[in-house]
Amino acid sequence: xxxxxxxxxxxxxxxxxxxxxxxxxxxxxxxxxxxxxxxxxxxxxxxxxxxxxxxxxxxxxxxxxxxxxxxxxxxxxxxxxxxxxxxxxxxxxxxxxxxxxxxxxxxxxxxxxxxxxxxxxxxxxxxxxxxxxxxxxxxxxxxxxxxxxxxxxxxxxxxxxxxxxxxxxxxxxxxxxxxxxxxxxxxxxxxxxxxxxxxxxxxxxxxxxxxxxxxxxxxxxxxxxxxxxxxxxxxxxxxxxxxxxxxxxxxxxxxxxxxxxxxxxxxxxxxxxxxxxxxxxxxxxxxxx
Length: 289
Description:
The structure is a single chain. The protein is of the alpha/beta class. The chain has helices at residues 6-17, 24-27, 48-62, 78-91, 106-118, 126-142, 160-169, 189-195, 198-201, 215-228, 238-248, 252-268, 276-286; strands spanning 67-72, 96-99, 147-151, 173-174, 177-178, 180-186, 206-210. A five-stranded parallel beta sheet has the order 2-3-6-1-7, sandwiched between helices. It has a two-stranded antiparallel sheet with strand order 4-5. Strand 4 (173-174) and strand 5 (177-178) form a beta hairpin.
């Protein structure tokens, strides 16, 4: 019987110290860990909400509509959608880059874009950097490959001057088209930020809000990730999956955390299937009991 205290984690730690092959992957015949909270396009699960968000952003990019915005709560999979977008655009020969951390001043954001696009540090004043960036964007446009710039965690764009610099990039055109396509991706507070800046708001062609998965999608999501990792059978019982959904609210990052720990706990107890009691213990431990 599990007990919801730190002694259980201590037992697991001691167990792992004496087992060189401590990863649960071998026990469950997995090629890799299926529930890592890092963005990997192979694990992009196309739920209804994620497919809709992806399709809208892809339309903005392909039709060169200037600017799109994707928002959603913490852990809903915004970065996954944008990484999938980059993969798709790169496959078609487009230049697409992501700024994972937009916490820069107005000059720094231009330097970061230039670095992400060309892999070099740009020196000089803001005018020089802006002109260098414009020339870089023009070179892609002349080749018929409108560049795509994605600003992730865009709710951290606290400075209006930085947002204004991004808006100014949307003033750049080539042959009656935008010189680049800009995407903002962030948590719901990004909406409030953009609402307070009417000039920028008017530049956004399409926006979408990501939600959590449904109960059925949560079950499919878990099986999908297991399949990508090398196991085509469901390792979680139906009762366990129902509780995963209930305690995660269908948020992919929470689902990953619960399922990853559940497989670890299951390995510790040599359980071939993860049942409801294991999920209860995981939730108990991860929430502090």
